[in-house]
Specification:
Length: 654
């Protein structure tokens, strides 16, 4: 391949040497196929550049030489990453003595393996290709190194071409605390918009990642500054407890089962594992795993090892203490993991990332290390903390009982719904049509509104299910308790398609499930609870667009002898604009509970005149979130949420 080098000269005036040409070829390859190196040219790829630079500083921290990293977004669109490590070596590179090591680092691709060989460098972005990729994809990059009392600087432009060759520029500033000259590396780069589709850094993306990096690297201080906004945004992350603090952070908004967080670590042959865990009184499992600081959301060997060893260790403990009797079955993994929050962080030399999104750790050796560590260290922790250990076993035992009870109850609902019509709840006034496509189920708050709705409906296609007061908050209840609740039972059998994993959207008895509740706080509360129930237990019903909220009108007025209904103030204003001579009063309706049957018939129950809001998954998810935060019986939790969010959190008004 012919490479055009004519006219390309270094500031010193000498022509490019052979090694310079390979360098330009390498960086040119990155510019030709950026996706191969940073995944995409969109926001993900852009932020990869930041991770790539930060990871190098984190490596230096892991090697024990760096304690602080500053990430700054500059007002002119650049990004600066500064560390207080040893500084990239500036002397001649052993393999290419004509060049400074620092220049090699900034201009040569290091596919996978890190240069320098020595030391324990296991971090590195998903692609692990080094800072030269960042240089290749920048219009400009400035390198500043403090080492041996000297400040060195170099500058590159247009995708890695040397603009200023590395050279000393003066003494390094003195460290205020020690009086010693500072050491460290600062990389400032400006992403190249002619190659990247996105050059606008997103502060939140960066702070989220920096916080996780700080959690995963105990004691490392990471400061983030966004100078693009006034006032500047400044955040500092530093966690003396590392992933133990991470678990506390994740459980902060929850009610923990006990105060202590179990934490342990183990290392062998160039690989290490750190685990922190705590249970909360909830029912969800939150296990987050990382390999070399990269989130492995698809799991992999480390997670597998952890799950297996956790199940074995807790069962072994429960048997040894005779909490689990000889004739009793083992606790299942899912029982033990109910309410568990855990972080698994592993580091290894040659991580194999597999799976759809390359977010699954494939290294077999990690499985055995994690199994070994968990068996040994978690057993010790349980022995040393018998009170907590008993709480864990007790919770798992309850979960196991609930699982078995739920199975029984599900079998029952399944049997019932298989007999057409049989087992329908007594208070359901069903429609006569058996075609779900034209059938509507109105879920009405309270018996009196239920009565009016029943009078106003079209009995052929409209069914009414009154529900009494507030239903159970499913976010805070186990499935067995949920299935014992009569309101929930009525909902499940009326809809007729089962529940949770067994839910079969093809079996639903109505294609419109319409929530009819007042516009007051209680009504809003009920709507939120019902949406949470559908979101958690009948998600396909929401996803399929079968859930609606009725919006009863706010006003009525007369035009001649005809009664007109107006949905809200906007509709009222529009009406007045169209009828400037309108003389009649506007009657403010008091909500569903107060509407008589004729009003209901002419508005909410009328397919042509009513106003329905179709609920999407996002709205249901929001309801779920509001529910989990506000409806727990835990006063502390609510106070915490309201304090930390400092905004007026109210029940969802849909
Ligand atoms: C190679 C060798 C040494 C340090 C580094 C690289 C290094 C690289 C980066 C990149 C960003 N910050 C960094 N800090 C250090 C060790 C050199 C020695 O032995 O002193």
């Amino acid at each position: 391949m012919a490479i055009k080098v004519d006219g390309v000269t270094t500031p010193q005036g000498s022509s490019y040497s052979e090694s310079d040409i390979t360098i330009l070829e390498g960086l040119e390859a990155v510019r030709k196929r950026p996706g191969m190196y940073i995944g995409s040219t969109g926001p993900t790829g852009l932020h990869h550049l930041v991770w790539e630079v930060v990871d190098n500083s984190v490596d230096e921290a892991m090697a024990g030489y760096c304690s602080r990293i500053d990430v700054t977004l500059l007002a002119d669109g650049g990004c600066r990453v500064k560390d207080d490590g040893r500084g990239i070596p500036v002397g001649p590179h052993p393999k290419n003595p004509k060049m400074s090591t620092a220049e090699i680092v900034l201009t040569t691709l290091h596919a996978g393996g890190k240069f320098g060989g020595k030391g324990y460098q296991v971090s590195g972005g998903l692609h692990g290709v080094g800072i030269s990729v960042v240089n290749a994809l920048s219009t400009r990059l400035i390198l500043e190194i403090d080492r041996d009392g000297q400040r060195w600087e170099a500058e590159f432009e247009k995708g890695g071409k040397v603009k200023r060759k590395i050279a000393p520029t003066g003494p390094s500033p003195l460290n205020r605390a020690t009086g010693e000259p500072r050491t460290g590396t600062t990389v400032t780069f400006w992403p190249d918009g002619s190659i990247l589709d996105e050059t606008d850094f997103r502060a939140q993306t960066i702070t989220e990642r920096m916080q996780i990096m700080a959690f995963l690297n105990k004691g490392l201080e990471i400061r983030f500054t966004d100078e693009r906004v006034t006032p500047e945004l400044k955040t500092t992350f530093k966690y003396a407890g590392g992933i133990v603090d991470f678990v506390k952070h994740l459980n902060a908004a929850k009610e923990s089962l006990f105060r202590k967080v179990a934490g342990f670590e183990e290392a062998e042959e160039g690989q290490e594992v750190e685990i922190a865990m705590q249970w909360n009184t909830g029912f969800h499992e939150s296990i987050f795993s990382f390999a070399n600081g990269i989130s492995t959301i698809e799991g992999g060997m480390h997670e597998e090892g952890f799950r297996t060893a956790l199940t074995n260790t807790v069962n072994r403990y429960a048997r040894a203490r005779n909490i689990l009797k000889e004739k009793e079955d083992n606790l299942q993994g899912e029982d033990i993991r109910e309410g568990l929050t855990a972080i698994i962080s592993v580091r290894l030399r040659d991580p194999q990332f597999e799976g759809q999104t390359k977010a699954k750790l494939g290294n077999q050796s990690m499985r055995s290390l994690v199994v070994k560590a968990t068996n040994k260290k978690l057993s010790e922790w349980l022995e040393e903390n018998p009170k907590e250990a008993n709480q864990i076993v007790a919770k798992a035992t309850q979960a196991a009982r609930a699982r078995m009870a739920a199975q029984g109850a599900r079998d029952l609902t399944r049997r019932k719904s298989s007999l057409d019509g049989a087992g329908l709840p007594g208070k359901l006034s069903d429609c006569s049509s058996r075609d779900p496509r034209e059938s509507e189920l109105f879920i009405v708050e309270g018996n009196s509104a239920g009565g009016s709705a029943k009078d106003a409906r079209d009995p052929r296609t409209q069914a009414i299910l009154p529900i009494r007061g507030k239903i159970l908050n499913v976010e805070r209840a186990r499935i067995d308790k949920m299935l014992k609740n009569t309101e929930i039972q009525a909902l499940i059998s009326a809809i007729g398609a089962g529940l949770a994993d067994d839910f079969d959207v093809d079996k639903i008895r109505y294609h419109k499930v319409i929530l009819l509740a007042d516009a007051d706080v209680d009504g809003s509360h009920i709507r939120t609870l019902l949406l949470t129930f559908f979101f958690r237990q009948m998600k396909p019903l929401v996803e399929g667009g079968f859930v609606y909220v009725a919006q009863p009108p706010l006003y009525s007025t007369l035009v001649g002898k005809e009664k007109i209904y107006l949905k809200d103030d906007l509709a009222k204003a529009a009406f007045l604009a169209e009828h400037p001579d309108h003389k009649h009063d506007f009657n403010r309706l008091k909500g569903l509970g107060e509407m008589d049957f004729a009003e209901l018939r002419d508005t909410t129950m009328s397919p042509s005149l009513r106003s329905l809001l179709q609920i999407n998954v996002e709205q249901a998810a929001l309801a779920d979130e509001v529910c989990s935060i506000l409806m727990g019986d835990d006063v502390e939790l609510r106070r915490h949420f309201i304090q930390t969010n400092a905004k007026d959190v109210r029940f969802l008004d849909i």
